[in-house]
């Protein structure tokens, strides 16, 4: 009588013990991975059968690792269109992966020991998005059959992406926390591009739609107060605080909690521009001119402001608000410490600034021009420039003396 093959071979009898299926699934799993990848079996870890570290073809380890929960079946149930492998994951595991495993991504691998095929799915992100497991004892997973374990190039890309996602969800430093928040926003509404910044006291979210997005804003409150807030928000482009109950925004999940909790909103446009500074004598003849200072225009429908800096020079400029029949103020400030560490003959923009600042000692007539894409949009002459002449004079004198000595 012929001896039956041992269960370590790929002969699959009609009836298999769970132990035999487990051993065969391990063979399918390990044979699908590159031989250079390091597969460490976990014997006592709950819900994690393997710790796998990815390696290059030459055997060099990458430091990128992931957990594997391996589930073997004699014949995996597929969807009617064969696009998904079905597997029921118990909620006790879902809860553990979603709430407790924070160091590395967890991939479930379902192996069909009959066809010798296996498919993978990254779990933590799915379980955060699909929370059916919280309401029942198990959740049916739809594992794309395109996620073949044997396609290790696609698997590696998925592991690297999932590792970044896990780090972003459990950040230890502020940049990671900001990146995590950005990812969460993207999941809520992918129609927008997000930039998250921190001003030292609070987190700010900059939202730009990839294409026009229709939303509805409803405001309630005392008419005078609400009208002023609308004008500040839309007309001036200022940051406006709306108290709970004042503002409702419909059309995006991003703003579901606005009405209940209140929010600070700023709706401003930004436009790159260039600024020319001009000094005049009493007869309004031009004495000196600084051209092409990069600035950014910011504001709303009825007024704008601008700010910028002349390269790596000490000169900073700001101005506004600019509106119909209103020109605001032009402010110049000089932070001469920006030149610290430079050789005297290599001070950024020194040759342009020196004659300008020298003439500034003799005049009170200061004008400026604003250009957008080469077109002049503003031209103003002012009798008062908001700057400290004594401070400028002292530093100019010092720089000129140092230059003449050296």
Itemize the secondary structure elements and their pairings.
Blueprint: H1 18-32, E1 38-41, E2 50-55, E3 61-73, E4 84-90, H2 91-99, E5 106-112, E6 117-122, H3 123-129, E7 138-144, H4 152-169, H5 174-188, E8 192-198, E9 203-209, E10 216-219, H6 223-235, E11 239-242, E12 247-250, H7 258-261, E13 263-266, E14 269-280, E15 286-299, E16 303-309, E17 315-323, E18 329-334, H8 350-360, E19 365-372, E20 375-382, H9 389-405
Parallel strand pairs: 3-5
Antiparallel strand pairs: 1-2, 2-3, 4-7, 5-6, 8-9, 10-12, 11-13, 14-15, 14-19, 15-16, 16-17, 17-18, 19-20
Descriptive report:
With 406 residues, this protein is α+β, with helices and mostly antiparallel strands. The chain folds into 4 domains: 152 residues, Trna Endonuclease, Chain: A, domain 1 (3-Layer(aba) Sandwich); 38 residues, no CATH class; 54 residues, no CATH class; 137 residues, no CATH class. 27% of the residues lie in helices and 35% in strands. The strands form 6 sheets. It has a 7-stranded antiparallel sheet, covered by helices on one side. Strands 1-2-3-5-6 form a 5-stranded mixed sheet. A hairpin with an 8-residue loop joins strand 1 and strand 2. Helix 4 crosses helix 5. The longest helix is centred in the middle third of the chain and has 18 residues. The chain is elongated and about 105 Å long.
